[in-house]
Amino acid sequence: MTDGLCLLTVHAHPDDESSKGPATVAKYHEQGVRTVLVCCTGGEEGDILNPAIDLPEVRADIAAVRRRELAAAAAIIGYDEVVHLGYRDSGMAGSEANEHPGCFAQAPVDEAVGRLVEVLRRERPQVVITYGEDQQGYPHPDHLRVHDISVIAFDAAADPGAFPEAGDPWQPLKLYYSGWVGARILAMHEKFGELGLDSPFDEAWLERAAAHMGDYTTQIDVSAHTDVRRQALLAHATQVDPTSPFWFGLPPEVARTIHPVDEYELARTASSVTAPGQGLEVDLFAGVRDLAAR
Fold first, then answer.
1. Cα separation of 16 and 25, whole Å?
2. Are strands 6-11 and 127-130 parallel, antiparallel or unpaired?
3. Taking Cα atoms as reference points, which of 192, 188, 196 lies closest to residue 256?
4. For residue 109, what are the CA distances in angstroms to 105, 114, 234, 259?
5. Is 43 exposed, middle or buried (0-12, 13-18, 19+ CB in 10 A)?
6. Is this prediction's pTM over 0.85?
7. How many CA within 13 A on the CB side of residue 222?
8. Per-residue pLDDT tens over the stretch 50-86
């Protein structure tokens, strides 16, 4: 049963949706689940990492370029709707961009939460995916803010006294944090060696990967959709160098066989959702399909 089911993901910048769980979204979209992407910023501070298109006219129009890239990637993944929350990229902490009055990091929290609540009430997702609290590996201000507003909005969307101008209350049923599991990095590094190729993962990468081997509750089999990540990343031509060994160093027929699962941490559930049993969940909508049918 997929009638009435909706999956909503909250991401910081154009390209985050392509590097974090795109195959999961593609899988549920194929099953008939409505899929919605909320992109909080325009990604204006992202570096142009593809030398072939590092051109003055691209830099002069980078916000529009990145918006077009996002639209192309979202279509590849299978998002039914892309919602722009409307903030400027904050850049890294301490940068000049981080002080821009229009950036996400400088926005009043209530304002940003209200914008997200309006989307949640309009789209009515049962499942929301966002970023976790622990982002020590990449503490970008926009990623931190995505976590903050998502957790607050998960509850506020159901509160009739909160943001009454944002539409009728709606309670999402499950909130997940997208996972970053080192097993994929270690498996890729090993495969580079098996094929006699130079691995792009240095000791620092391997140490970080070894330290992140497991705090997840849910594992989604995406073996039928692994190529989506590669294709969607390539749509972000300014952000992704097609010759990068980090993203594309392994032949596609090999890359699609490595760790073909996406991991998530179930962070919150509504009171009406039955607590998961022992073992890993294998469905983001476990425990909510029957509720959605009522």
1. 13
2. parallel
3. 188
4. 9, 8, 33, 37
5. buried
6. yes
7. 29
8. 999 999 999 999 999 999 999 999 999 999 999 999 9
